């Protein structure tokens, strides 16, 4: 007995969507890990409480915000368990990235000057690593849990609500954990990196969170577009399979 190709082969559409979302998530996560040590400063045309007329935030804020867009799309399309698998496997992959970067830094260099610059740019300090890893594993799992708790109450409707609410709350958790550990607790305990005062810590938290919150609101149409596109492709593929 033979089976038709349409029945024996997995659909290419959903596979491409899954790989693309996982790829975006991992790419943004690795980029965030490598850019976290640089502090950015943006001047504002007005003054805000705590931050003043300047927003100061870690360089990872842009890339890390994309991980929540990717994980929310993935959670909506493939469910809570699948999203948590991606989040926690990616957490383990963080250690692979760190091992590869640190082993490359430790390896003998043909040009000592270039080697020093390489270490300065890519060799994230202990305080940054500790802060980013703990913030990641807590906030990303929280994001998936809250996303699906809201979905349990709203059903398939109100994707905008679970996208914004889950991302806004998880980004707040991520910001507090990362800034507190990277710029206060870890430097004080390990002796690596600056120990910022309370005012500077609050300014850094507020600046980082405001940017992440803005991205969470602005990326909602993108989440709708991605989910709609993938579902339409899946429905088309299912119709073609049934017709065959």
Model description:
The protein has 244 residues and is mainly alpha-helical. The chain has a single domain (12-243), classed as Arp2/3 complex 21 kDa subunit ARPC3. The chain is built from 9 helices and 2 strands; from the N terminus they run ααββααααααα. The chain has a two-stranded antiparallel sheet. Helix 3 (61-78) runs antiparallel to helix 4, helix 7 (159-190) packs antiparallel against helix 8 and helix 7 (159-190) packs across helix 9 (220-243). The protein is globular. Residues 1-10 have low confidence and may be disordered.
Spans of at least 5 consecutive residues with low confidence: 1-10
Q: How is the CATH topology named?
A: Arp2/3 complex 21 kDa subunit ARPC3
State the CATH class.
Mainly Alpha
Class per helix and strand makeup: mainly alpha
Instruction: Quote the distance from N terminus to C terminus.
Output: 17 Å
The biggest beta sheet, please?
Answer: 2 strands, antiparallel
Q: Count of helical segments? A: 9
**How many domains, as an integer?**
1
Strand order of the largest sheet: 1-2
Number of DSSP-assigned strands? 2
């Amino acid at each position: 007995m033979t089976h038709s190709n349409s029945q024996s082969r997995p659909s290419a559409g959903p596979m491409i969507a899954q790989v693309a979302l996982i790829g975006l998530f991992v790419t943004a996560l690795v980029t965030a890990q490598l850019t976290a040590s640089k502090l950015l400063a943006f001047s504002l045309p007005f003054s805000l409480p705590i931050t003043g007329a300047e927003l100061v935030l870690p360089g990872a804020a842009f890339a890390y915000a994309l991980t929540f867009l990717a994980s929310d799309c993935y959670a909506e399309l493939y469910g809570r368990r699948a999203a948590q698998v991606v989040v926690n496997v990616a957490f383990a992959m963080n250690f692979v990235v760190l091992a590869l970067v640190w082993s490359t830094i430790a390896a003998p260099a043909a040009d000592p000057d270039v080697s020093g610059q390489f270490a300065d740019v890519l060799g994230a300090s202990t305080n940054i690593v500790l802060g980013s890893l703990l913030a990641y594993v807590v906030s990303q799992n929280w994001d998936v849990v809250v996303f699906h708790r809201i979905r349990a109450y709203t059903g398939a409707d109100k994707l905008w609500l679970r996208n914004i609410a889950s991302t806004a709350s998880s980004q707040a958790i991520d910001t507090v954990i990362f800034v507190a550990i990277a710029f206060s607790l870890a430097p004080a305990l390990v002796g690596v990196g600056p120990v910022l005062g309370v005012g500077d810590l609050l300014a850094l938290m507020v600046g980082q969170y405001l940017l992440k919150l803005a991205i969470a609101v602005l990326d909602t149409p993108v989440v709708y577009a991605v989910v709609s596109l993938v579902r339409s492709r899946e429905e088309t593929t299912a119709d073609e399979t049934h017709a065959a």
